[in-house]
């Protein structure tokens, strides 16, 4: 139990009704989770409005209500706090409730359109290999040193973030790497956290369904850097034209990285093959098993971050050469007879194009590129023909198959995808509804030196069909088939 007034530090309060000395057992922003002694924070959402559930929360035992508008009728024995912004208030209250856990470790946030999961996960791996206790908050999973938890968001709500940071404090975690999504920043999920550093990977058109314009999306990202304290570092990719924009108003120490332009941390690709990348970073050479030119950017960001966090240069280079590809992010296996199978989460037209172009820039003309891809059901239907078009235009063979059909008929989704295939590419494509059979067929068709891309599901370990989730792991399945056929 903690007194309400002790968790209101930094919250902008407009009005108070009732006693702020009341003891609070826990905080929640969903009335369905409220139990006796809780503080309920009412948030105006995108679908619903928490203010409509204040009465329900009180009936369930809420002793305090934090809201943007006082309800007409106040219940006796309940304290009401009117604030400017409930989401912001929640973030400060959560941090205070858990004793500001972000201040007891070195927290680094990674933001940008692409590469957040890759950079944050590789930093987690590198610092683990260096012998530290490390935390990770990512799209794929949450790690409290060696213990794994399921991730529901890229950047969880502020209450969840602080809860995990508190676990990390208990476990003696020294460094934590987290993905900071634009939704997360916009909804104040990261407000009130003390960051040691912030990394900007890149910015392309994305999430314009949520942020109205590109400028708004960029400014949301920028606000993360604006809020960093003086002692923190900012590390931005200045080959991206918005890199310098992120640095405009920050008080933090400024560092840049680039492959093309002038920067504090420079890298050059010396070799780019399916076995890995040979990079020159500042004056040193380093070999990494990660593939694709965008991973040169990711590795450079990791090198710079590790140096800014105090690791020795020689040690960082050694650890980089030991890093393994991230689950479902250009994750690959090379069979005994030199077939490369790549599993990637690319599930949008842009991402698919990006991945295929990256593969084609490494591939020589003699090798086949066999792509296995589908589209999820109950999601944006307009992407289907576009992905059908991109897959066939940029591969030598394509097997269309199911992703997560969810409530839709798998065959109907596949028909939508096929509509995007241009007549000259008809002969490249075949359709196998069952994803397991599709992956098996790709493995049977592949000859030495060919490349198989399995796109769309990445790290997912299930397939959702008609409301039921079945175990399904693209990477495990392709590895098993390649072994089974002695390839
Ligand atoms: C669009 C969006 O971001 N929505 C997030 C938002 O929910 P919301 O504001 O829409 O909530 P709402 O349904 O309108 O409800 C409003 C309030 O009423 C409360 N409520 C509701 C019903 C009830 O009976 N009682 C009650 O108290 C709700 O708990 C909520 O506080 O706040 C919730 C709590 O933090 C999030 O779980 C939810 O994420 C949804 C599930 C989501 O899909 N978000 C995605 C878009 C997202 O955040 N993605 C980014 C990554 C994007 C990327 O880079 O790919 C991420 O960081 O994961
Ligand atoms: N630095 C980069 N630049 C461009 N593309 C990248 C970069 N790093 C990874 N990718 C590719 O972009 C896709 C997304 O990568 P990743 O999951 O690391 O990004 P993310 O920012 O976490 O995305 P999300 O918002 O979906 O969580 C993958 O297909 C990956 O192969
Ligand atoms: N967060 C995204 C991921 C999509 C991944 C893809 N495999 C699919 O199921 O469509 C969604 O749920 O729309
Ligand atoms: Mg991510």
TrEMBL record:
Which pathway is recorded for this entry?
A: Cell wall biogenesis; peptidoglycan biosynthesis
The name of this protein is: UDP-N-acetylmuramoyl-L-alanyl-D-glutamate--2,6-diaminopimelate ligase
Annotated residues that bind ATP are located at 112-118
Provide the binding site for UDP-N-acetyl-alpha-D-muramoyl-L-alanyl-D-glutamate. 31, 154-155, 181, 187, 189
What this protein catalyses is:
UDP-N-acetyl-alpha-D-muramoyl-L-alanyl-D-glutamate + meso-2,6-diaminopimelate + ATP = UDP-N-acetyl-alpha-D-muramoyl-L-alanyl-gamma-D-glutamyl-meso-2,6-diaminopimelate + ADP + phosphate + H(+)
- Could you list this entry's UniProt keywords, alphabetically sorted: ATP-binding, Cell cycle, Cell division, Cell shape, Cell wall biogenesis/degradation, Cytoplasm, Ligase, Magnesium, Nucleotide-binding, Peptidoglycan synthesis
**UniProt-listed InterPro entries:** Mur-like_cat_sf, Mur_ligase_C, Mur_ligase_C_dom_sf, Mur_ligase_cen, Mur_ligase_N, MurE/MurF_N, UDP-N-AcMur-Glu-dNH2Pim_ligase
Taken from the record, one Pfam family name reads Mur_ligase
Q: What is its main location?
A: cytoplasm
Supply the EC number(s): 6.3.2.13
The record's top EC class is ligase
Q: What organism does the record attribute this protein to? A: Mariniflexile gromovii
Report motif location: Meso-diaminopimelate recognition motif. 403-406
Domain Mur ligase N-terminal catalytic residues, every copy: 26-98
- Modification N6-carboxylysine occurs at: 221
């Amino acid at each position: 139990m903690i007194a309400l007034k002790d968790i209101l530090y930094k919250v902008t309060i407009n009005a108070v009704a009732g006693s702020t000395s009341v003891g609070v057992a826990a905080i929640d922003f969903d009335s369905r989770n409220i139990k006796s002694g809780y503080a309920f924070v009412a948030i105006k959402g995108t679908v619903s409005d928490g203010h409509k559930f204040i009465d329900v929360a009180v009936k369930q035992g809420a002793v305090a209500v934090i809201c943007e508008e006082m309800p007409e009728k106040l219940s006796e024995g309940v304290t009401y706090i009117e604030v400017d912004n409930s989401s912001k208030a929640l973030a400060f209250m959560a941090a205070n409730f858990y004793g500001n856990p972000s201040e007891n470790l070195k927290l680094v946030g990674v933001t940008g359109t692409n590469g957040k999961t890759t950079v944050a996960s590789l930093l987690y791996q590198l610092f683990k290999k260096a012998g530290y206790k490390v935390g990770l908050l990512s799209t794929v999973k949450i790690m409290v040193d060696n213990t794994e938890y399921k991730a529901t968001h890229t950047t969880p709500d502020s209450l969840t973030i602080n809860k995990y940071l508190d676990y990390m404090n208990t476990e003696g975690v020294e460094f934590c790497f987290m993905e900071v999504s634009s939704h997360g920043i916009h909804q104040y999920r990261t407000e009130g956290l003390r960051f040691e550093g912030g990394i900007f990977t890149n910015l392309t058109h994305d999430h314009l369904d949520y942020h109205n314009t590109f400028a708004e999306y960029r400014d949301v990202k920028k606000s993360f850097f604006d809020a960093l304290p003086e002692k923190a570092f900012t590390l931005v990719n200045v080959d991206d034209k918005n890199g310098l924009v992120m640095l405009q108003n920050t008080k933090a120490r400024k560092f840049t990285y680039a492959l093309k332009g002038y920067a504090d941390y420079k890298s050059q690709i010396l070799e780019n093959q399916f076995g890995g990348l040979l990079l020159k970073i500042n004056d040193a050479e380093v070999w990494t098993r990660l593939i694709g030119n965008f991973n040169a950017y990711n590795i450079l960001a990791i090198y710079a971050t590790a140096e800014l966090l105090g690791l020795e240069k020689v040690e960082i280079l050694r650890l980089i050469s030991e890093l393994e590809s991230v689950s479902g992010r250009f994750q690959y296996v090379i069979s005994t007879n030199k077939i490369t199978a790549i599993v990637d989460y690319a599930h949008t037209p842009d991402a698919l194009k990006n991945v295929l172009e990256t593969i084609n820039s490494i591939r020589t003309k003699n090798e086949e590129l066999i792509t296995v891809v589908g589209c999820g059901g109950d999601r944006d239907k307009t992407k289907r023909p576009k992905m059908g078009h991109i897959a066939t235009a940029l591969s030598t063979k394509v097997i269309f198959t199911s992703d997560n059909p969810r409530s839709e008929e798998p065959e109907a989704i596949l028909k939508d995808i096929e509509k995007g295939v241009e007549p000259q590419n008809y002969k490249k494509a075949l359709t196998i509804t069952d994803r397991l059979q599709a992956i098996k067929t790709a493995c049977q068709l592949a000859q030495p030196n060919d490349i198989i891309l399995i796109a769309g599901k990445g790290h997912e370990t299930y397939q959702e069909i008609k409301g039921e989730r079945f175990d399904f792991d693209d990477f495990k399945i392709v590895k098993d088939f390649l072994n089974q056929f002695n390839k």
